[in-house]
């Protein structure tokens, strides 16, 4: 099967590669780019661990072939903090409100919450729950995650 | 890499795309947003030697009024439909159904044409298209044709589209005055496939019902119209109609209702009747208030 040349921008860096068409974007990011912060859980679009931003929108990196992302701009969890390493408001809130336990699902939750708050900066609890319903936490630490996103939306409510 | 190897094609035009599909036959599959196809490939429920990616094909995206209908390009994402003020105004049932599809991370890639051409029995858009009497525009090397929603869904994951035919756009009737719309579904969690659901459109003419469309999902091998209930309601005075009776009638003729560990066929039928009754009540109320 014929490999395909692609070029995309990942966290601001241009990446060129020749990839098999069946390589999903999540594997491209982890294996070809060495960005292992994007986690793979179910690999068929259910768990949300591999959520990334593709041209600014949250998507499942296991449900996009790398060849489909040719020409696009990707932000992974490694690109969420400021260049000087300062945590983003969502990341800081996850730390402050115990929004993680084992940490496996955390990159996906942080990306989903970041996209959610970009679209809706002041969500209700119901909207936060709905926005996070596409991410699974098998430690079941959902209350801490909910508290973190609520705090990130409105830092004054601590 | 979990999917089986395949050859990738990314044609730039519609003619090239349908030409590829014609040449490659049933070894090829069109790839739109991939939110149903890629999981099926990952689980190897489906294997294709060729995927024809539609992302570069011009003219497959957009939302615009055309000849009194609202035309939506097949490649338009569910996220774009959810954000569209035009859709909310002209086709409220479509706007209300969209947030029920998967999760927002799915809707940012998933397309309306993909949902309809994939024709999952539990998907919302096919039932919405049936309830509204939408029309589908399809293109093949033989030319274009229009397929009414009522003739499109032929069986499990099966549609009236030929192997070399692409769904290019959907035409929805623009909401007339004194009409009401509702969609109700029961799912175990938000974003899960519904166990059963119903989309209802009601148009009033004076005190009587001019047209009632009822689309059912999760209740058969594909999306279905509740034709007997629709016929019974046309011309009726909604004040004299019992909502629970509408629900019972809508599911009465169903054959081959799915059954799995989440619910027996009998349970799904009862839930389906309740979803129809609820959607009917809300749609009629909205039509009367309009």
Automatic annotation (TrEMBL), chain A:
<dbReference type="Pfam" id="PF01799">
    <property type="entry name" value="Fer2_2"/>
</dbReference>
<keyword id="KW-0001">2Fe-2S</keyword>
<dbReference type="InterPro" id="IPR002888">
    <property type="entry name" value="2Fe-2S-bd"/>
</dbReference>
<dbReference type="InterPro" id="IPR006058">
    <property type="entry name" value="2Fe2S_fd_BS"/>
</dbReference>
<dbReference type="GO" id="GO:0051537">
    <property type="term" value="F:2 iron, 2 sulfur cluster binding"/>
</dbReference>
<keyword id="KW-0560">Oxidoreductase</keyword>
<dbReference type="InterPro" id="IPR036884">
    <property type="entry name" value="2Fe-2S-bd_dom_sf"/>
</dbReference>
<comment type="pathway">
    <text>Alkaloid degradation; nicotine degradation.</text>
</comment>
<dbReference type="InterPro" id="IPR036010">
    <property type="entry name" value="2Fe-2S_ferredoxin-like_sf"/>
</dbReference>
<feature type="domain" description="2Fe-2S ferredoxin-type">
    <location>
        <begin position="4"/>
        <end position="80"/>
    </location>
</feature>
<keyword id="KW-0479">Metal-binding</keyword>
<dbReference type="GO" id="GO:0046872">
    <property type="term" value="F:metal ion binding"/>
</dbReference>
<keyword id="KW-0411">Iron-sulfur</keyword>
<protein>
    <submittedName>
        <fullName>4-hydroxybenzoyl-CoA reductase subunit gamma</fullName>
    </submittedName>
</protein>
<dbReference type="InterPro" id="IPR001041">
    <property type="entry name" value="2Fe-2S_ferredoxin-type"/>
</dbReference>
<keyword id="KW-0408">Iron</keyword>
<dbReference type="GO" id="GO:0016491">
    <property type="term" value="F:oxidoreductase activity"/>
</dbReference>
<dbReference type="Pfam" id="PF00111">
    <property type="entry name" value="Fer2"/>
</dbReference>
<dbReference type="InterPro" id="IPR051452">
    <property type="entry name" value="Diverse_Oxidoreductases"/>
</dbReference>
<dbReference type="InterPro" id="IPR012675">
    <property type="entry name" value="Beta-grasp_dom_sf"/>
</dbReference>
Automatic annotation (TrEMBL), chain B:
<keyword id="KW-0285">Flavoprotein</keyword>
<dbReference type="InterPro" id="IPR016169">
    <property type="entry name" value="FAD-bd_PCMH_sub2"/>
</dbReference>
<dbReference type="InterPro" id="IPR005107">
    <property type="entry name" value="CO_DH_flav_C"/>
</dbReference>
<protein>
    <submittedName>
        <fullName>Xanthine dehydrogenase family protein subunit M</fullName>
    </submittedName>
</protein>
<dbReference type="InterPro" id="IPR002346">
    <property type="entry name" value="Mopterin_DH_FAD-bd"/>
</dbReference>
<dbReference type="InterPro" id="IPR016167">
    <property type="entry name" value="FAD-bd_PCMH_sub1"/>
</dbReference>
<dbReference type="GO" id="GO:0016491">
    <property type="term" value="F:oxidoreductase activity"/>
</dbReference>
<dbReference type="InterPro" id="IPR036318">
    <property type="entry name" value="FAD-bd_PCMH-like_sf"/>
</dbReference>
<dbReference type="InterPro" id="IPR016166">
    <property type="entry name" value="FAD-bd_PCMH"/>
</dbReference>
<feature type="domain" description="FAD-binding PCMH-type">
    <location>
        <begin position="1"/>
        <end position="177"/>
    </location>
</feature>
<dbReference type="GO" id="GO:0071949">
    <property type="term" value="F:FAD binding"/>
</dbReference>
<dbReference type="Pfam" id="PF03450">
    <property type="entry name" value="CO_deh_flav_C"/>
</dbReference>
<keyword id="KW-0560">Oxidoreductase</keyword>
<dbReference type="InterPro" id="IPR036683">
    <property type="entry name" value="CO_DH_flav_C_dom_sf"/>
</dbReference>
<keyword id="KW-0274">FAD</keyword>
<dbReference type="Pfam" id="PF00941">
    <property type="entry name" value="FAD_binding_5"/>
</dbReference>
<dbReference type="InterPro" id="IPR051312">
    <property type="entry name" value="Diverse_Substr_Oxidored"/>
</dbReference>
